[in-house]
Every structure is written in structure tokens, then in C-alpha cells.
Amino acid sequence: MKTSEFYELSFDKFGLKVPKGYWFAGYDTWAKVDGNQATVGITDFLQTKMGDVAFFTPSEDQVLEQDDVLGTIESIKATIDLTMPVSGRVVEYNPRLKEHPEVISEDPYGDGWIVKVELSDWEADRTMLLPADKYFELMQEKVKNALAD
Amino acid sequence: MSAKDDVLPELEERYQLYLGMPRQFIPWYPTIDAEKCIGCKKCMDFCHDTVYAFVEADKKVIVQDRWHCQVYCQSCTHACPKDAITFPERADVKAAIRELRQKYPAY
């Protein structure tokens, strides 16, 4: 993607990106909607906070609601549950994550996507999500708070 | 009436709202089973939001600032070696949040 397609925040050695055209949950997962399907992943902020991802374990449910746990990631720092930003039937989990979960850290908005779903309630889901510019504002707050801790 | 009129003033500003909704109306926070807690403080090491506090007299952890808890974060449960921490049902919380969204539109 071109730089102009992102909002970007630089601090220390990090550059945190937020791609335009994606939708974001306050809990740092994103959805990119294409027709009645969405691709879901974690944000650059979350992957930076987590450090290198070592494992990803998907949920066993084939139908996930917005705010359900979609899987668990483990890094050297912590184990966290990821939360689903949209509702839908699972089409597929990213097959690369079995052997190469580190791709989540390397390319969170691209090759590091986590799950694709067939959307079931997009109009309602969208009212709980943030467009890129609003998430970028939220992310800046999160960074400020993380640095203050 | 805006969301800012309804926040808990005693909360630090960063904890007052969740996506434009007053945080104290969202029933998401941990509960610790005191019988199971062994006071190891691993939850406190994980959570940087001062949700938890250690009570020296009891050698146990308590939930001190429940509205500091990040909505839908329950990762402290992975840190607890005794499964002493529980959270509300996500479906119930989701229903509460969607109702709140009617009162406090997104943007």
C-alpha cells in the first residue's frame, strides 16, 4: 500500500499505521469489508504492544458474533484473547498462521490477516466500529497512556 | 444530554468513556474468587490499568478499580494459575452496549 493510504504515528523506533478504508474495534482488531465478506486481523498497535507473535489458536466456533473471542495469540510477553469486530460465518482462517504466526507481527494488515467471514449483521456491527481516522485518534490516546504507564 | 455529562467524574479521563459511552454503564469487569486466589499477583503484573490491588492483610488480590478494565479484555485470566478470575457473559455485555449506543450515537 502507498503511504497516503495510511494514517501513521511515529514514536521511538516504531511507526504505527492505520489503513484507510478499514473498520476498527476499540479492542484493536480490524475488518476490511468486501461485498458480503470481511477479512479480520489485529492492528499495528496491538501487534507492537504484544511483541513477536509465537502462536495463534483459532476459536472452534464456525459462527462468530461481534465481540466473541475469535482466537488466542501468544507472544513472548503475554497470551491474549482476540475479539471479533464483526459477526459472520467463518469462511477460513489464514492457513499461513499454523506454520508462520509471526506473519501477524510482520504484516498485520496484509498477509497477517486472521480470519475471513461471511457477514451476517454488518449494518448493526458497523455502528460499533470506528473508521480509520477515529481509530487513529483512539490509538494515539492508547500510545500516550501506554508510554505513561 | 451528552455522554460527557454522564461520566463518573472521579474516574481518570482516559477511563471515563468507552467509544463515546460512559464506562460505568458497561458491565464488563473481573470478579475474583477469593477462595481460589493465592495472592501471586500475576494478574497485577499483566494488567497495567490498576484494576487489581493486593491486600497485604489477606495476602489476596482484589478488584480495586473495575471501571479501569478494558472492555472485552479478559487476558488476565490466562495469567492466573488458579482460574480465579471470571468475567460476565459477552452476549449480555454486547446487548448492554448496543442499547447504550442508541442513547449515545457513535460520532
Descriptive labels:
A: 149 residues; alpha+beta; OB fold (Dihydrolipoamide Acetyltransferase, E2P); B: 107 residues; two-stranded antiparallel ribbon; 5 helices; 15% strand
Tell me what you see in this structure:
- The complex is a heterodimer of chains A (149) and B (107).
- Chain A has a domain at 28-128: RNA polymerase II/Efflux pump adaptor protein, barrel-sandwich hybrid domain (OB fold (Dihydrolipoamide Acetyltransferase, E2P)), CATH 2.40.50.100.
- In chain A, 25% of the residues lie in helices and 40% in strands.
- Chain A has five helices and twelve strands.
- Chain A has helices at residues 44-50, 96-99, 103-106, 122-126, 132-148; strands at residues 6-11, 14-19, 23-24, 29-34, 37-42, 53-58, 63-64, 69-75, 79-83, 88-93, 115-119, 130-131.
- In chain A, the strands form three sheets. Chain A has a seven-stranded antiparallel beta sheet. In chain A, strands 6-8-9 form a three-stranded antiparallel beta sheet.
- In chain A, a hairpin with a 3-residue loop joins strand 8 and strand 9 (79-83).
- The radius of gyration of chain A is 14 Å and the shape is globular.
- Chain B is of the alpha+beta class.
- Chain B is elongated.
- In chain B, strand 1 and strand 2 form a beta hairpin.
- In chain B, 29% of the residues lie in helices and 15% in strands.
- Chain B has one domain: 2-Layer Sandwich (Alpha-Beta Plaits).
- The model of chain B has no long low-confidence stretch (mean pLDDT 95).
